[in-house]
Amino acid sequence: MGVSALRTEHLSKRYGRLLALDDLTLDVAAGEVFGFLGPNGAGKSTTIRLLLGLARPTSGRAWVFDTDAADVAAAHRRLAYVPADVALWPRMTGAEVLDLLARIGPGTDTAYRDELIQRFALDVSKPAGTYSTGNRQKIALIAAFATRAPLLVLDEPTSGLDPLMELQFRHAVGVARDNGQTVFLSSHQLAEVEAVCDRVGILRAGELVEVASVAQLRRLHHTEVAATFTGTPPNLTGAHGVHGLHTDGAETVRFTLNGSPAAALRALADADVATIVVREQSLEEIFLAYYGQNAR
Amino acid sequence: MIATMAAAARPERVLRGLAVRQVRRGALVVTAVCAGMSALVVVGYRSEALDPAAVAALARNPAIRTLFGEPVALDNAGGFTVWRTGTVLAVLLGVWAMLAATRITRGEEDAGRWSLLLSGRITLAEAVRQHLGVLAVVPVLVGAATAAAMIAAGVDTAGSLLHGTGLAAVGLSFVAVGGVSAQLFVSRSAANGAAAAVLVVGLLTRMVGDGVPALAWLRWLSPFGLLALTRPFDGNRGLPVLVLAFAAVLLLAFAGRLAARRDVGAAILATRGSRPARTALLGSVPVFAVRRTMRPLAAWSAGTCAYFLLLGLIARSMTEFLTGNPDFAAMAAQAGFPALGTVEGYAATLYALLAVPAGVFVAVRLAATAADENARRLTLLLAAPVTRARQLAAEAAVAGCAALVLITVAGVAMWAGTATVDAGLGAGDALVGAWNVVPVVLLCLGAAVLALGWTPRAVAAIGALPAAGGFLWQVLADSIDAPSWIRALSPFAHLAAVPATAPAWPSALGMVGIAAAGVVAGTIGYRRRDLYA
């Protein structure tokens, strides 16, 4: 394992009787794009507030590149943050806010910032009071991506963006990855997480229930297979890993596959396969499978 | 289910309930202060035989009239109470009414809480009308409670009722002023600023109208002037209060009309669209705090400067009058204004008043920091490599320095006024006298930082307590001739009469020590707690 960009050990946060975050131990490697998933109230924003020192942990600790997260003067020199709900001083223009954030922040690449302003098509000469939610989010995104800080912490950064802007966001994440920056992305947009993240962590009711790469997650879960045959379909009953077997008409067989496909493939190979469609479940289906029955 | 349907059938009731919840606590405090102070001053009044010729001279003196209003019926407890507490309570009620009006309308709208509310069947105009309607009841309660308390304390019914009605009308007019400015301006702070400007101009208009006979008609243009024109316990004139109440009702209706003409989240006065970036004062957290303080400081300085310039201009007239009428010097001493007979004594007494605006200013600035935190504007700042202690230190230091500027401006303004009339106040004396209030202002700073660390919702109230609360406490203690340990609870009791006497260094250092303890304890709390972010 290389350097950790972000590390927590037994991090917990209690608000009165509510245990918002329960014993979170997480390690995000430098250079990785990490997706942080969970339904509303699962503890994602609480985790981020603890990482940023905006809230104090009830127990446990967190580090940003081996700097204690509580030492914000040092830790925040190496990160940039986009909050879920961006609030700005209403009389300051976008350009003024960006200027302020650049001057007090961890250092900004102003040429790249100007490029980002173009890419996100933001009119920075308007007072922030006139901005929509999406435009306020763009200010925070531009400020964060332009810093080139080694760690970007993004809390639902695209909830107010339109699909075109979301493409720009994915592009900017790609640029950050190419620069070797680490991205910690908390999001509900599963397609977005699927598109940009190397690994994901799934949080449920304050507990981390899964950490895996997107590919691993899929492998851990079902693969849907549909095959048609010119002759009689083979008997797959009892084949290792095959579940939910059913036939559509005389020629078509559908089933889901768990684990190694070797047994099923051998059985299929013996028959005359006309077509075969193998579909991995989307992250959304995996996510819903986690929360479908007992949502919190 | 039945309850839900009943509520849905009458959205106005739900709105009114919401408004009541937001104003009831403040309303109780203001009512208790107004009624309690009036009753206590009535009870504490000691009748003194006054020479009628001296009373006539007092009523003619422009300086007395400017500062305290026209002295009428001072020979009875009711008249004295109105003269002593009328303006102070009217200002208190007016400030509260105007701040409450902008808070529950524009403040809620600004914070986005009305978007959901107004997505139902309720229109914006309806919401504004119902909220202001509920708030308008409060001044009426305050006036009724004040009149009832004075009658119970044993003064004439007609005068008490008129005074209570006058207070109610002033309160109502500031509910209306706050309501209108909340429609005109897009942010709560701008609405507050405009309403406060109306209040200060109203107060200065009353002072000039009272002080300059040729401009006496000006009083008809000011809520405080109209209140004075009612002359409770003397002439008992009803017309001015009717005019004021009528104007207030018209303004309230106007606020509703304006609300109907604008969009939710927008204002009648449009904000300017694009403009070039002004990148001065953005370089660091302290410098950014300076930037955010400049505009409020300019506004507060303008108001305080005008007030103290006026006080300077009347200094000579006042001191000469009191030197010639020792009876009134004694009476002024009972009202908490000793040693007004020399220009230094006069300056010392009035500079003590300066602690109130300067202390409230500091409290309001730190309350703005709490508001920034609550609105999550601080999140982006504190996500930068900026510790909370550093950010708080910057805000507190800038607020403190700005208060020092405010105090200095007032000192210079009073000196300029006295110099204009050759009253003989030295520039050095003027500055030292003004700076004498610094310990009280620092107490406010300490209290506000303490509140920010431990109860961030009450920063303005707790921060203003040493100055505004201490001032009211002293007025009350002087008026009822309270025992010295009660007087000593007010920081004002520990201010020496600088420049008439030397500064009281031990008590000044004591206050600075308490203030420092408040800052330290508040900083510890602020560093430890979770932020609203």
How would you characterize this protein structure?
The complex is a heterodimer of chains A (296) and B (533). By secondary structure, chain A is of the alpha/beta class. Chain A is 32% helix and 31% strand. Chain A folds into two domains: 4-215, Rossmann fold (3-Layer(aba) Sandwich), CATH 3.40.50; 222-280. Chain A contains ten helices and 14 strands. In chain A, strands 6-7-8-3-9-10 form a six-stranded mixed beta sheet, with helices on both faces. Chain A is elongated. Chain A starts with a strand and ends in a 5-residue tail after the last helix. With 533 residues, chain B is mainly α. Chain B has two domains: 10-270, no CATH class; 280-533, no CATH class. Chain B has 22 helices and no strands. Chain B has helices at 2-9, 11-44, 52-60, 62-68, 77-110, 113-117, 124-153, 157-184, 188-211, 223-229, 239-260, 285-313, 315-324, 326-334, 343-374, 378-382, 388-420, 427-435, 438-454, 459-479, 484-487, 505-528. The chains are: A alpha/beta (296), B mainly alpha (533). At the A-B interface, helix 2, strand 6 and helix 3 of A face helix 12 and helix 16 of B.
Task: Using brief descriptors, characterize the structure shown.
heterodimer; A: alpha/beta; Rossmann fold; 2 domains; 4-stranded antiparallel beta sheet; 10 helices; B: 533 residues; mainly alpha
Brief characterization of the structure:
The complex is a heterodimer of chains A (296) and B (533). In chain A, 32% of the residues lie in helices and 31% in strands.
